[in-house]
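re: that chain from earlier
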Amino acid sequence: MGVDEPDLPTLYDWAGGSAAVRALIDAFYDRVEADDLLAAFFPGGVDERHRSHVAAWWAEVLGGPTVYTDEHGGYETMLAHHRDLGITPEQRHRFVATMSLAADDAGLPDDPEFRAAIIGYVEWGTRLAMGNSVRGATVAEHAPVPRWGWGVAPPYQG
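^ sequence. v structure.
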């Protein structure tokens, strides 16, 4: 699953590659650890292994290397991590807002096109995760890791 935008940089490249994605994930989890509503999902904090795996997921989603699929089990593994969590609408919304703030903290590009694309993914992904987190939910058991693109607003290049 993915978009075909051959004349555009990937969101991964536009963000600044692996180091930028990792900075985003670290900034996000630093905020999560300080947030009573979200920290409950991570008793004892968010360890290096988790941060590394989520950074690999995000890199792949944004058009970077397929490390999450190749080394960590792809979509099925991510689905397993969210089953039965019982994510509430308030937690989902806080997750989205926290990711937006983390993008600022990490110094990711702040052009509206890029931010709209990544927040579009966060909205889409968190709504799926919330639905998949309901005990007994009927879920898509197998799917590719999504490959997110620019959508309706490609990068403005002058």
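Residues 53 and 68 are 7 Å apart (CA to CA).
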